[in-house]
Amino acid sequence: MKTDIYHAIDDQTDRLKKLARWIGEHPELGHEEVMASGMLSDELERQGFRVDRGVLGLPTAFIAEYAAAKSGPTIAFLCEYDALPGLGHACGHHLICTMGLGAAIGLKAAIDRVGGTIRVYGTPAEETTGAKVPMAEAGLFDDVDAALMAHPFHRYERSGTSLAMDAIQFEFFGKSAHAAANPQDGVNALDAVLLTFNALNALRQQLESHVRIHGVITEGGKAANIIPDYAVARFYVRSANRPYTDETVRKAIRCAEGAALQTGCTLKVSNYEYSYDELRTNEPLSDAFTRNLNELGVPLDAIQDGQDHGSLDLGNVSRRCPAIHPFVQVIDESFSLHTPEFRDLAMTERALDGMIVGAKALAATAYDVLAQPGLLARVRESFEAGVNA
């Protein structure tokens, strides 16, 4: 049966590569992925999927579905297709979305014989206000038995962990004055921002090692001879889990409150992007993906243990259904994600071949969940244990 899956993907390889290359050459930022979303939706309809576009009022989000006549588990393949500002597809999302598409096409060749439902989720803006967050909150993954995606990288890695994250904005409101003639009449909002940075730098000494706090000043004044009456700083606060992230955010807010008190400013705190939860890898599902990679010719000793690579909106999905996020080797050089070097190599034929391997491994793993009741039971048991932990 897996042979049929692989043949179906092979039959579409040229088409999949052409689509991935086109999306890579035409990068679109989050929630602006009109062309990528449209092309993926059109292709899924051509392959016999029913497509619901503009899910949750998000113009570039979609859900495509194909249901076999025989009932069975629901498998989700997740597609990301947003690019990075100034860098384009330096995170390989043009490969991620086409891997998901290819996996869905492959599984469709076998699902009528085993039963079940295939869903392809088009999830915009993973790099910023990831659509998986409102999708998860709306319950769109609650009936999914396995959510699968794979990320391009310079090596193979098992699905690992990610950092929970909050995006916090501090706005300080002061009072302008002439910086030379009457500075005593001013209330310096920029000073409050700088004090916040210094307080956070001191706070890091008393935080656990897995915490990351990094930020920028997005507004710091208009001219050197005017006391700034408005200043803004934005921070990402991350840690290994949601409870400690929440605790760290409370401490960060107190740092900003202290800066406001010292300078006489008023403070407004808000979230400027969605909050991401940590990824809870479903280990039985991850084991199945690793076995399928091995069956496709990847040596087990070439598949490294999962690492933390930042924050993912898939973490929010993993709280609603079993999920994995392994890494698939698509380049042979050790360039990091979010670099021009990775972007350029992710457009080569080598990378497109790696994408096809990833699509086959995803589809084969999905088939195992459909065809092996014992695996499905272990996947569900592991998920429930994580939810109740």
From TrEMBL:
Gene Ontology process terms (BP): folic acid catabolic process
GO CC list: cytoplasm
Superkingdom of origin organism: Bacteria
Gene3D superfamilies: 3.30.70.360, Zn peptidases
Residue intervals of the Peptidase M20 dimerisation domain: 170-253
GO MF assignments: dipeptidase activity; para-aminobenzoyl-glutamate hydrolase activity
Keywords noted in UniProt: Hydrolase
Family, per entry: Belongs to the peptidase M20A family.
PANTHER family: PEPTIDASE M20, XAA-ARG DIPEPTIDASE
The name this protein goes by in its record: Peptidase M20 domain-containing protein 2
